[in-house]
Specification:
It comes from Desulfacinum infernum DSM 9756. Helix 1 packs across helix 6. This protein is α/β, with parallel strands linked by helices and about 230 residues long. The chain is built from seven helices and five strands, in the order βαβαβαβαβααα. It folds into two domains: about 200 residues, Rossmann fold; about 30 residues, no CATH class. Helices cover about 35% and strands about 15% of the residues. Strands 2-1-3-4-5 form a five-stranded parallel sheet, sandwiched between helices.
Length: about 230
Amino acid sequence: MLILGISGSPRKEKVSGTYRLVRRVLEATGLDYELISLRKKDIRGCIACLGCAKDNVCKVEDDLAPLREKIVAADAFVIGAPNYYSGINALTHAFLERWFQFRHQEGNLLWGKLAVTVGVGGTKGHFPADDLERFLAYNFIETVAKVSARGAASCYTCGYGDSCKVGIPYLLGGEEGQKFTEETIPDVEKDPACLQAADEAGRLLAKRLTQGHDRNAVTLKMQQAMMAKFSETA
């Protein structure tokens, strides 16, 4: 049983709150996993060519192509993204747009799988976690838990965060907030509540996977939820 972890953060793995929190969830499952960072990968958005409609295989040639089989083979996913303007960043968005390739002619390669979504932001992380859940639902993947956290906004390392009057430190703490040190910069690994949530999410995902996971039942549940959602806008 394999869980595929995806970090959509463009930051280096050792400093990325998203990457480290996704890894924490994966480790808490106690199951086999592979963690892939999208950092420096060339993944473009869907170009609406419909080349995938016949065989459910995207025809755009970039760094997503070698990841396709890993996505199909995975039993579950832990996907994380940073908060960009109260949503997921462009790289993660492009990555998930291309999952459109799996949806044609009742393509069920991903139906009924399970996931945990992870969001990290300079203020809040629930926006990207929610966005990820919505993307996954289109492939009838159930998000069993969402983990969100406050990480270090770019303002803390841009070189001007201690004087900028529109940056996160000032907006959250005024003049006092700008007097930050290495010890006071937010870090997901310094947040006990965040780490506990990640551990609980990982254990829940493992429990759901190993205790009679029924993909058909999950698929039906997600299909009904999506039909109800669309009926609200019809």
